[in-house]
Amino acid sequence: MNYSGEEVVSWLQSHGFSPETLERIEKDGLDGEDLLGIVQYVEELRHYFPLVKERLKFKKLILMNAEPRDGASSSSCAESSSTSNSFYTSTDDSQNTSDDENLELTSTPNEKRKSPKDFCIMDEAIELGIAKVSSYGLPPGWLSKFQLPSRFSASVELGIQEGYLSANQKSELVRDVCTSINHFTSHPKRSERQWIAKKIVEEYPCMAGKKLVDSDTEWGYLEVKIFNRMKKIQKPKHPANPAEAGPSKAKRQKKDFSIWAQQPDLPAGETLATLKAFAEENRNEVRRNPRKHKAHKDFMDKTFPLRRHEIITAPKLVKAVLMEYPSLKYFIHLKAELCRIFNDDNIPTKLREKYLMWQQHILKYAAASKDKVVNEVMDGMEAALSEEGCNREEIKSRTSLLVINKVLRQRSGKKRGLQEEVVTILEREADVDSAVIDYIQPQIVIVGDIYDIDLLYIVTEGSIICQLPQEKIIDAVIGLLGSFYVFNVSYNQSRQF
Question: Where along the chain is composition biased (Low complexity) (predicted)?
């Protein structure tokens, strides 16, 4: 039942199908088996036969000799007395099911035809697909070189470890697989999509679908998802003829409604000018008394609307912000600023609880990981926990921070720029100022050992912005997250520091 793409195109042409349909069939190189399987899928029918009348005509040509099996007749399809054109014909009425290989394409309208016994086109199409992927040996063509992605996003990786993936996570995994497929071809055949879908289920059992009836497969829905995703990849992003494209519409910048991007209301009777004058008068006094935290707090509360207006509307370097508001160098005032931005005094506590919740998932993922670096981190944690009098919860928090470096590491590339860590550990003899000069985005810097910290900093834009107490690493996490909001961090590659 193997017919070449040329024979399929010739057969469709003889039955008067449109040039657009012939072009799509020929472009994807569909053979007889692929054309036979199209009947089951509405999306494929609409793609290859865009006209409704042609879809009906195609179904009639394919299905006119097939009737549903039921009761005692389940072993064969009823014979049809129709004399219309058929896609498959038999050369001998006495042939049994083993002679189905003799079916051949025909375009002779008045040739005498007989319906083959024990043959139903819809069932045959399903059996063909299952047979193709059931032989899971070395596949032909580009599939022999194809491999599933070895790495997915942190969310999908955690779901695979848990043995459960949500609908969004499954779609994300399929998108990554289709990206790998696109390296070989943007028009995979149905049999190739089936082979890949079955391979996904065998590699990741949590991707298996439910079988509603006995004839269903666990990977059938994946084949459809791959087809739909590949259709999106195949769509041209730009018109074929730029001259035919209309005038480009100016993109309207989307307004950011995030709470940290909103400018707070000015106090009653105050303007930006009066607040700026107040800041100039009191800034030096606050700078001369770094230990008077009450004076710092009052000054920062009063100038908060001015500060947020300056940071949001005209982004400044972090060094410039710290020169004007030196109170932000202290962790206590960095936390207070974060509470002002979210208008919630419990934000640090909520961040701490959120991190402790994720810490359990991170350590569970690390314990099941086969990555060499992660395994070394977990071995270090076990050694630290074996010491008497150790703070077990603090050790777990510090270990989870090291694992985050591995899980959330960005892939380097032209579009992503430099690859930076969440936490960096320096030796005790290191010159911190020189070591951090190339660091751009906020990150945690530890001097010493992760389980024996001498100094703990938050650094960004090549300089130290805050020194933290080294007893609790979770304070460093809060300071790191807070610095992104307080300084409105959103870096562009072209920005110079």
Answer: 73-97
d(CA 234, CA 178): 11
Residue 448 in tokens: 């010493």
For residue 115, count CB atoms less than 10 angstroms from its CB and return exposed for 0-12, middle for 13-18, buried for 19 or more: buried
Half-sphere exposure of 481 (CA within 13 A, CB side): 18
Would you state the pLDDT for residue 324? 87
CA 327 to chain centre: 40
pLDDT tens per residue, range 228-240: 888 888 766 555 5
DSSP state of 465: E
Could you tell me which of 179, 155, 177 has the C-alpha nearest to residue 166? 155
Does residue 467 surpass a pLDDT of 80?
yes
Name the H helices within 314-453. 318-324, 331-342, 347-368, 372-385, 392-407, 432-435
> How long a stretch of residues is the chain?
497
Query: Which distant-in-sequence residues (6+ apart) come within 8 Å of 188 by Cβ?
Result: 181, 196, 226, 230
Going by C-beta distance under 8 Å and a sequence separation of 6 or more, which residues neighbour residue 389? none
Q: What is the pLDDT of residues 426-436, one digit of tens each?
A: 998 888 888 88
Return the higher-pLDDT residue of 140 and 487.
Answer: 487
CA–CA dist 228, 431 (Å, integer): 55
DSSP string, 106-124: ---TT----PPTT--HHHH
Amino acid at position 74, single letter = S
Cα separation, 300 vs 321, in Å, equals 13
**Residue 280 pairs with which residues in a beta bridge?**
none
Per-residue confidence (pLDDT) for residue 174, from 0 to 100 = 93
pLDDT at 420: 64
pLDDT tens digits, 370-415: 888 889 999 999 999 998 888 999 999 999 998 987 776 645 444 4
Q: Is the pTM of this model over 0.90?
A: no
Question: Do 90 and 112 form a contact (C-beta atoms < 8 A)?
Answer: no
Q: Return the H-helix or E-strand segment holding 454.
A: strand 452-460
Spatial CB neighbours of 250, under 8 Å, sequence gap ≥ 6: none
- Report the distance separating Cα 305 and Cα 51, nearest Å: 61
At 456 the pLDDT is: 92
